[in-house]
C-alpha cells in the first residue's frame, strides 16, 4: 500500500461523525480497527487511497474530515517517495489544520530492493515535523505501533487538559519503533 490512508477516531460503540463519501477510488470497507489505549477502546475508521499514481484526482472530501493521515511510500519505489511531498502539499491545502500526520516507509522487509534509505525518510519527516518509521505489511513490523500511536494521540487530544500530561507522538514512535533487520547484501 502506498499513498495516503485517513483515520477518524471515536470511542468504540459511537458512530463516527464524518465518513468519507463512496467512490470506487477508495476502499472504505472492512477497515475499522479498535485499539485499546490505557483501557479506553478507540475505534479508528480507516480508508485508503487507491495508490499514488492517482493522487491528483483524489476528492478532497475524503481527507478533509480525517483526524489522522498516514502517508505511505514503498522503500523499493522512488516515485512513491517523491510523491510524498505532493501529498503533503495537498494536505496542507485541504486537510484539517491540526490533522495528525505520520510518514511510513513500507516494505522494509525487502532490503535487497531498497532504493530509499531510512535516513531519507527521517530527513523528510523532520522537515515536516512528523513522526516516521519504516514498516512491513508482510511481517507486521511497526504496523500495530502506527495505529497505536495515532490512537494515543487522538485520545490525548480528546481528553486534553491545560495542566495535564501531553502525549508526544514523535517521542513515542522514536522510543518504540523497530528497525528492519539489516542487511544481507552489505
Ligand atoms: N514484501 C512486501 N510486500 C508488500 C508489502 N506491502 C504490500 N506488499 C505487496 O505489494 C503489492 C502492492 O500492494 P498494495 O497494497 O496493493 O499497494 P498499493 O500502492 O495500494 O497499490 P494500488 O492499490 O494497486 O495502487 C502487493 O503485492 C502486496 O502484497 C510489504 O510490506 N512487504
TrEMBL record:
Main location: membrane
GO molecular function: GTP binding; GTPase activity
Localization of this protein: Endomembrane system
Transmembrane segments: none
Membrane-topology annotation of the record: Lipid-anchor
GO CC annotation, single: endomembrane system
Keyword Lipoprotein in annotation: yes
PROSITE patterns in the record: RAB, RAS
Keywords in alphabetical order: GTP-binding, Lipoprotein, Nucleotide-binding, Prenylation
Domain of life of the organism encoding this protein: Eukaryota
Entry keyword annotation includes Ribonucleoprotein: no
SUPFAM superfamilies xref list: P-loop containing nucleoside triphosphate hydrolases
Start and end residues of each stretch annotated as Disordered: 1-28
PANTHER family: PTHR47978
NCBIfam families in alphabetical order: small_GTP
Record-stated family: Belongs to the small GTPase superfamily. Rab family.
Protein name: Ras-related protein Rab-37 isoform X4
Origin species: Zalophus californianus
Amino acid at each position: 500500500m502506498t499513498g495516503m490512508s485517513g483515520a477518524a477516531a471515536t470511542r468504540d460503540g459511537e458512530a463516527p461523525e464524518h465518513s468519507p463519501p463512496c467512490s470506487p477510488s477508495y476502499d472504505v470497507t472492512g477497515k475499522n480497527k479498535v485499539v485499546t489505549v490505557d483501557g479506553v477502546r478507540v475505534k479508528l475508521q480507516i480508508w485508503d487511497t487507491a495508490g499514488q499514481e492517482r493522487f491528483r484526482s483524489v476528492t478532497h472530501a475524503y481527507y478533509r474530515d480525517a483526524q489522522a493521515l498516514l502517508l505511505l511510500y514503498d522503500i523499493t519505489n522512488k516515485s512513491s517517495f517523491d510523491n510524498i511531498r505532493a501529498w503533503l502539499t495537498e494536505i496542507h491545502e485541504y486537510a484539517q489544520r491540526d490533522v495528525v500526520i505520520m510518514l511510513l516507509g513500507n516494505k522494509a522487509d525487502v532490503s535487497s530492493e531498497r532504493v530509499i534509505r531510512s535516513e531519507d525518510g527521517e530527513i523528510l519527516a523532520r522537515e515536516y515535523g512528523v513522526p516516521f518509521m519504516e514498516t512491513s505489511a508482510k511481517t507486521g513490523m511497526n504496523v500495530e505501533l502506527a495505529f497505536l500511536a495515532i490512537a494515543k494521540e487522538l485520545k490525548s487530544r480528546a481528553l486534553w487538559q491545560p495542566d495535564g500530561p501531553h502525549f508526544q507522538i514523535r517521542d513515542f514512535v522514536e522510543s518504540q519503533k523497530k528497525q528492519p533487520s539489516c542487511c544481507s547484501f552489505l
